[in-house]
Amino acid sequence: MLATAMIEKLNEQINMEFFSSNLYLQMSAWCEDKGFEGAAHFMRQHADEEMGHMRRLFTYVSETGGMPLLGAIAAPRTEFSSLLALFEYTYEHEQLITRKINELAHTAFSTQDYSTFHFLQWYVAEQHEEEKLFKSIVDKIRLVGEDGKALFFIDKDLQQLANSS
Ligand code: OFO
């Protein structure tokens, strides 16, 4: 049985993952609207991955005798000045999620909740991958620049990334 404070924190993270999913789904609409079909596909797929992150937490809370609670989820941002700005935002967002996961791991460890600490290791590893992924996209856009031709190839690249995962 998990401590009440731990359940509350895990529930907050459930909502954060929901928010991540909505954010990326909303971003896919921006990409689609601007003609970046590869980026839109990539974002839709990533929104699904975030639902996976949410569900994994949901199942853990429920299996350990807690009650997962879905609260209100803030509306995500809808406007971005460019594809680069959009991906810079994803990278910042993932850094925020990493901080949240680290806080959770710290709470679990310092309260000797080793089961939750162990469970959270998957998220620790996943956040490493998430930051690496979004940083690599930001770096690539910065490298090639933002003229039409460069963005065309970035979009193709994102389509391929979505197809391969
Ligand atoms: Fe993008 O890792 Fe969950 O939120």
UniProtKB/TrEMBL annotation:
Q: Is Oxidoreductase found in the keyword set?
A: yes
Enumerate the catalysed reactions.
4 Fe(2+) + O2 + 6 H2O = 4 iron(III) oxide-hydroxide + 12 H(+)
Mostly located where? cytoplasm
Gene3D superfamilies noted in UniProt: 1.20.1260.10
Pfam family example for this protein? Ferritin
Signal peptide range = none
E.C. no: 1.16.3.2
- Please, one GO biological process term? intracellular iron ion homeostasis
Record-annotated Ferritin-like diiron domain positions: 1-145
Where is this chain's protein located in or outside the cell? Cytoplasm
Ligase as a keyword?
Answer: no
Q: What class of enzyme is it?
A: oxidoreductase
The organism's place on the tree of life at top rank: Bacteria
Q: State the UniProt keywords alphabetically.
A: Cytoplasm, Iron, Iron storage, Metal-binding, Oxidoreductase
One Gene Ontology cellular component: cytosol
An example Gene Ontology molecular-function term = ferric iron binding
CDD domains linked to this entry: Nonheme_Ferritin
Q: Which residues bind Fe cation?
A: 17, 50, 53, 94, 127
PANTHER family from the xrefs?
Answer: BACTERIAL NON-HEME FERRITIN (PTHR11431:SF127), FERRITIN (PTHR11431)
Q: Which family does it belong to?
A: Belongs to the ferritin family. Prokaryotic subfamily.
User: What job does this protein perform?
Assistant: Iron-storage protein.
Q: What is this protein called?
A: Ferritin
